[in-house]
Amino acid sequence: MKNYVVLKFGGTSVSSRARWETIASIVRSRIEANETPFVVCSALSGVTNLLERLLVEAPSGTHHETLATIEGRHKEIAAELGVPFELVSNELTELGRLALGASLTNEVSPRLRARALGMGELMSTRLGAAFLESIGVESEWMDARQHLKAVALPNEPDAKHYLSALCDYSADEELAAALKPRVAVVTQGFIATHAHKPGETVLLGRGGSDTSGAYFAHKLGATRLEIWTDVPGMYTANPREVASARLLKQLHYEEAQELASMGAKVLHPRCLAPVREAGIPLHIKCTELPDVEGTVISGDSPDFGAQVKAISSKGGVMLVSMDTLGMWQQVGFLADTFDCFKRHGLSIDLVTTSESNVTVSLDPAANVLDPATSEALLSDLREFCTARMIGPCAAVSLVGHNIRAILHQLGPALEAFGEQRIYLVSQAASDLNLTFVVDEEHANKLVQRLHELLFHDRVSDALLGPTWNALFHPDGDSDRLDDDVWWFSKRSELLELAKDGPAYVYDVSTIQRRAEELQGLGLDRVFYAIKANPNPEVLKTILDFGFGLECVSPGELEHAKAMGASERLFTPNFAPKEEYISGFESATYLTLDNLHPLRHWPEVFAGRDILVRMDPGHGRGHHKKVKTAGAQSKFGIPPEQVEELADLVKRHDINVIGLHSHVGSGITYAATWSETAMFLAGVADRLGSVRILNLGGGLGVPEKLGDKRLDLSEVKETIAAFRQARPEFELWMEPGRYLVAESGVLLGRVTQIKEKEGGRFFVGLDIGMNSLIRPALYGAYHPIVNLSKVDGSPKIVADVVGPICETGDVLGHKRRLPVSEEGDVFLIASAGAYGYVMGSQYNLRKPAIERILR
Ligand SMILES: *Cc1c(COP(=O)(O)O)cnc(C)c1O
């Protein structure tokens, strides 16, 4: 029993002396454990690309510089390893001859291509094997082509056999007999011998070295296949795109296969079948961090229950949408159309059908879709249907066992798709993946959002390992928002301020920036809704921009007047009669939002100008409690009462100069306000006297990292389009939150920490729901940061709570935080709107005070 273990090392793992020393120590430790290592290597990183370039240049005879670069790379590494460069001179000579041949015949045949591209692996292994010998690791170089033979497939084109062959990997006693115990074999990935022409090289496809490793593992009946690469394993998402992606410690073959096929680049999709058939576990390990456990892929990974294990995304996907106009029912429709794809050599990946449309996706990895092919395909398809190409799109897939059982949990995750177009949804019959095809440009955001929703509050366990950052930058950040938020750059001032006790701190320059943005919207008037934050310094800052103030009570009106606001808009709701009477004295404009006052106290309004608040019938907003339109909402006059309104105002000589609608708060859908304008213009046409349309407030700010930011330029565009259609109206808006939310943070200190069973942490602060009630009242999310340890990597998952005697006194649930201590300063972000002003004396505790930062 020789206990084979196959170790495959990728390009970056064989490209320096340090990495070869790691290889040597891995090989030694396997030998010490009584295993026989069988080492499969890639070419030096970048060399396969250089060889590709060489083949592009060779037919025109311009390849000499590239050949010299390739030679130089190997000379360098040979010197670094202290082995003779002459070990690769045969390969380099042959490479020169192949290139010369191509320049003479003016073409590169698949045969020549395979031969030339295979040189990279031959050279890296010659140098590596010599290095191992030189430092006393007994090893033997082996030509992989002696033992790995391609199989000929029926109808296989010649080019495919040379460039992307499949091999016979049945148990190979001859190979086993050739190996000596305790001696490491060093051989090549990527290459094999032609099925019928001994002596000719074929390739296993780009990235095929993994597959070589799997073939050899199966041939030898190895106890394990280890794939050593530059990442420590498979992740819950691509760690280069999602910083908080988590290492997956264990996966079933099927799941790994699905992930590899759906775009995860760590493993070549073809490498799983051979090991899976023989039940050989596959370990993914990182040469840079050899001690990290990595991912173990096997047939007996524990059952973690139904859950999403990873999110992958694959770009460059083209869709072909075929509208069938009733032909769908016809016998053979699918056969006819699919035959067109076959004729053009295109393989279909995903398919969805409806009564009148069939949409399929074409995987870029499996197809060559040049413009000529696309055109030819479409014109063939048009014989049967109207066909068009959509793309480039991206396929975003959720992967995991038994996805069907957890579809219901995906509800909130699917909100992430809110305003984006989903072209195609496909649930694999294997129940291992759910795929959404969206515009390529949206894919990254979508992956971020889904990942946040599905993984952000998960602690490390048998399935989930550390994040990429935690492994490679153990002192780095992870949960912090962008570096360019104001409170990150002013954190030392904030830490100083925090010494004086709990406080809301407002940053004046942030308010100014938002005000400038609103000025740029091209509105006739902006009123700031002062209920969001009536702090005098905040108001002064905003009044400097020439904005009016929108008030909802006599108290706010009085405050606005005292602050010197010349334009005051009063919007009472279910207020007593006296408030309307006094309102006409102290406000510039008054908005009425019910017919009751006109029916019962018309004398208050007779002869006056008013605005009227309408209910467009549907609300928007980030939470049902902040939707301010629709039959459920107490606000606004429904459109069916417009006739009565017209009667009443006519009868009492009241002049409706404006219409108003405010449909909700925290809205990120850019066309909301132009849609409101359109609705109000329709009502205006029925009344006649209207010259002002007040489109309300509600402009949203991002709640969480990765949330979509409301695109103000789009708001501006849609409003401009409305204006062009209906230039007769003056357009107003009355935002509150947008001006102030991000300018404010709430600072508090850690009082106590508690740990309960199951690793549940509570971090207690000296601020609670009496200072900030939004999380308890609306379930609002506020980013929470330990400002004293802003560079600390997240280590615990904790509920952040206050000192109020209420179970609901929670500022944030399940937040990933660094290990925190009594006295640390915590920052609650985006607290500038509806924060201090909603504070209370509950429990007779004083809420946080207000401070200004300039
Ligand atoms: C609260 C309110 C606003 C401001 O809403 P934001 O979401 O803060 O922009 C505007 N108009 C009316 C009538 C309001 O009640």
Automatic annotation (TrEMBL):
UniProt name for this protein: Diaminopimelate decarboxylase
GO molecular function, one term: aspartate kinase activity
NCBIfam families: asp_kinases, lysA, PRK08961.1
Active-site positions on this chain: 805 (proton donor)
Entry-linked SUPFAM superfamilies: ACT-like, Alanine racemase C-terminal domain-like, Carbamate kinase-like, PLP-binding barrel
Keywords assigned by UniProt, alphabetized: Amino-acid biosynthesis, ATP-binding, Decarboxylase, Kinase, Lyase, Nucleotide-binding, Pyridoxal phosphate, Transferase
Orn/DAP/Arg decarboxylase 2 C-terminal domain mapped to chain residues: 504-832
Cofactor (UniProt): pyridoxal 5'-phosphate
E.C. designation(s): 4.1.1.20
Keyword hit for Lyase: yes
Pfam families in the cross-refs: AA_kinase (PF00696), Orn_Arg_deC_N (PF02784), Orn_DAP_Arg_deC (PF00278)
Family: Belongs to the Orn/Lys/Arg decarboxylase class-II family.
Domain Orn/DAP/Arg decarboxylase 2 N-terminal: 520-741
Ion transport among keywords: no
PTM annotation (N6-(pyridoxal phosphate)lysine): residues: 531
Pathways involved: Amino-acid biosynthesis; L-threonine biosynthesis; L-threonine from L-aspartate: step 1/5; Amino-acid biosynthesis; L-lysine biosynthesis via DAP pathway; (S)-tetrahydrodipicolinate from L-aspartate: step 1/4; Amino-acid biosynthesis; L-methionine biosynthesis via de novo pathway; L-homoserine from L-aspartate: step 1/3
GO process annotations (BP): lysine biosynthetic process via diaminopimelate; threonine biosynthetic process
